[in-house]
Design brief:
Layout lengths: L14 H9 L14 H12 L3 H15 L6 E2 L6 E2 L6 H16 L3 E6 L26 H20 L10 E6 L4 H10 L10 E5 L2 E3 L1 E2 L6 E3 L2 E2 L1 E3 L4 H8 L2 H8 L3 E6 L10 H10 L3 E7 L9 E5 L5 E4 L6 H4 L13 E10 H14 L3 E9 L2 E9 L12 E5 L2 H4 L14 H18 L3 E4 L8 E3 L11 H4 L3 E4 L1 E3 L2
Length: 485
C-alpha cells in the first residue's frame, strides 16, 4: 500500500526500522501507520525501538519450539537431598542458627524480594506488599518483612559480641514492576523505611516483554503501542544482570541471597537456620519446601528430571493426576510431596551463572491469555520465566522442609475466596503467635473461640518465638491483641 503523501516528513514509516521489522516478520506493527497522528507515530517508533528485536525473536522461537518437546521423565527427589523436620536434631538446628548469624554479621547475606507483577487477584490496585491483612497492629506485609530484617540484624550483632562496631546491615533488594514501582517506593518513603536505613534498600524493576499471537507476532494494544506484560518472577535474573546489581552485591561482599515472594505473611526473611544449613551443605541453590497437603493441591512440586538429573519444579497443571496421587510404599508419603513455596537461597556465583544460562537458552513459559488489543480481546501468549527455572542449572540443590503453619501463609486471593486470602493468612499468624506466647508461659483470654483469633507478636520482639519469656511469663493477654516491647 503506498503511503499517503502529505507535508509531514514522517509520512512513511522510518525505512530502516521497517526493514528490521520485516527481517523478523513483525512489520504488521506498522499496519495502522496511515491513521496515526504525528505524535502517535512518534510514540510507535519509540515503542518499537525500545524492543530488542533479535532477542525477542530468539525468545519467541525457542519458547515455541520447546512447547511441543517431551520433557525428560520425572523421578521423586532423593531423600538425601532433603532435610526433614523430624530428622533434625537440636544440635544441628543450633549449629545452623549460629553459622547463619555469623555469616549475617559478616555481611555475607543479601535479601531479595520479588514484588513485581500486576497484583490484580487481590482486587486491590496497590502493590501486594502494601496490603494490610488486618492484624491487630495494622501492619502491612512490607512492614512485617522489614521488622523481621531488623530483628535478625539485632540477633546477629548480639551474637558476635556486645558493642561490636563492624556490624553491616542486611541489604534488601526489592524487585518491582513498571506497574508497582512508583507506588512501592512512595510507600517506603512515607513509612520512613519502617526503621531500616534508606541506603540499605535498593529498588529495581523487572522487565516487560511483548505479548505475541499464536503465530508469534506482536499483539498491538493500541495502534501505536505493543501490548506488554511483566516477564514473570524469573525475570529477576535478567533484571539483576541488566541493572548491574550482581556487581553491586559482589562489591558489598554478599555471598548468599535469600529470595522470597512478597505475598507470604509468615515468611522468615533472612532465616539464620536456613542460611546455616545452606552453607553447611555447600549447595549452590536451596529451597524451603512444605509437605503437599493432598494429592490435588495446586502447588508446584520438586522432582528429579531424568536419571540422576537436576532437581526442578513441575507445575501442578503439568503433573499427571496418577503421578500426583502415587504413594511411596516405604514412607507412606506421596512420591511427589515436596511443594515449592517460593522461599529460596542462592550463592551469588550461581546467580551470575543462571542469568547467563537462561538468557542463552531463551526459553519462556507461554501463558495463554485473552489480551486487550486493537481488535478487541485477542487470544495470545504472555511470556514468563519463573524463579524456579534456575534450579535445573544448579550443580547441587538442597531442600529444607518447614512446617506450613509456621512459615507459609499465602495472600493470593481476595477475601471471600476459598483459600489463600488475607483472612486465612491473618489467622495463621495469630494462631502461631498464640502458641509461642503459651510456650513462653503466657496465658490467653478470648471472647471469640480461640481457633478464630489469637495474638500477634511484633517481629521486633521475636523472630521465631525466641526471647519471649521475659515479656510473657505469667502474664495474661486478651486476644486479639499485639504484643510488642
Amino acid at each position: 500500500m503506498e503511503p499517503v503523501m502529505d507535508n509531514n516528513a514522517t509520512s512513511s514509516p522510518p525505512q530502516t526500522l521497517l526493514e528490521r521489522l520485516k527481517d523478523y516478520g513483525q512489520e504488521d506493527a506498522f499496519a495502522l501507520w496511515d491513521e496515526l497522528s504525528p505524535e502517535e507515530r512518534e510514540l510507535l517508533v519509540k515503542d518499537i525501538e525500545s524492543i530488542d528485536l533479535p532477542r525477542m525473536d530468539r525468545i519467541t522461537r525457542c519458547s515455541f519450539q520447546s512447547q511441543g518437546l517431551p520433557a525428560a521423565a520425572i523421578e521423586p527427589v532423593p531423600e538425601s537431598s532433603v532435610s526433614m523436620v523430624e530428622e533434625r536434631t537440636m544440635e544441628e538446628r543450633e549449629r545452623w542458627w549460629k553459622m547463619g548469624l555469623k555469616a549475617i554479621s559478616d555481611g555475607k547475606l543479601g535479601v531479595l524480594l520479588l514484588s513485581g507483577g500486576q497484583g490484580t487477584r487481590l482486587g486491590s490496585s496497590d502493590p501486594k506488599g502494601c496490603f494490610n491483612i488486618k492484624l491487630p497492629s495494622g501492619k502491612s506485609l512490607f512492614q512485617l518483612q522489614a521488622e523481621r530484617i531488623l530483628c535478625v540484624q539485632r540477633l546477629a550483632s548480639q551474637s558476635v559480641n556486645e558493642g561490636s562496631t563492624s556490624f553491616k546491615p542486611i541489604h534488601w533488594y526489592i524487585m518491582t514492576s513498571p506497574f508497582t514501582d512508583e507506588l512501592t517506593r512512595k510507600f517506603f518513603e512515607s513509612h520512613k523505611y519502617f526503621g531500616l536505613e534508606q541506603n540499605q534498600v535498593t529498588f529495581f524493576q523487572q522487565g516487560t516483554i511483548p505479548c505475541v499471537s499464536k503465530d508469534g507476532r506482536f499483539i498491538m494494544e493500541t495502534p501505536y503501542r505493543v501490548a506488554k506484560s511483566p516477564d514473570g518472577n524469573g525475570g529477576v535474573y535478567s533484571a539483576l544482570k541488566s541493572s548491574r546489581l550482581l556487581e553491586d552485591m559482589s562489591m558489598r561482599g554478599i555471598k548468599f541471597l535469600d529470595c522470597y515472594g512478597v505475598d507470604n505473611a509468615l515468611v522468615r526473611v533472612a532465616d539464620p537456620t536456613f542460611l546455616g544449613y545452606f552453607i553447611d551443605k555447600g549447595a549452590s541453590a536451596a529451597a524451603k519446601v512444605v509437605r503437599k497437603a493432598y494429592p490435588q493441591e495446586k502447588v508446584g512440586v520438586f522432582v528429579r528430571r531424568g536419571k540422576d538429573g537436576p532437581l526442578s519444579v513441575v507445575e501442578y497443571s503439568e503433573l499427571d493426576p496418577s503421578l500426583a496421587s502415587a504413594i511411596n510404599q516405604q514412607t507412606g508419603r506421596l512420591r511427589f510431596c515436596w511443594s515449592n513455596v517460593c522461599l529460596h537461597m542462592f550463592t551469588l556465583d550461581f546467580l551470575n551463572q543462571v542469568a547467563n544460562g537462561l538468557e542463552k537458552d531463551s526459553i519462556y513459559h507461554l501463558a495463554e491469555k485473552k489480551i486487550p488489543s486493537v481488535h478487541g480481546h485477542t487470544v495470545g501468549y504472555k511470556l514468563e520465566q519463573f524463579i524456579f527455572d534456575a534450579f535445573p542449572y544448579a550443580p547441587s540443590t538442597a531442600l529444607f522442609e518447614v512446617l506450613r503453619e509456621e512459615e507459609f501463609a499465602p495472600v493470593k486471593n481476595a477475601n471471600g475466596s476459598n483459600f489463600d486470602t488475607p483472612d486465612s493468612a491473618r489467622l495463621l499468624v495469630l494462631r502461631l503467635h498464640a502458641r509461642w506466647v503459651v510456650a513462653a508461659g503466657g496465658f490467653l483470654t478470648h471472647s471469640v473461640p480461640l481457633y478464630a483469633t489469637g495474638v500477634e507478636v511484633s517481629p521486633l520482639c521475636s523472630y521465631a518465638g525466641e526471647n519471649l519469656e521475659a515479656i510473657c511469663r505469667g502474664r495474661t493477654f486478651h486476644a486479639p491483641c499485639e504484643i510488642s516491647y
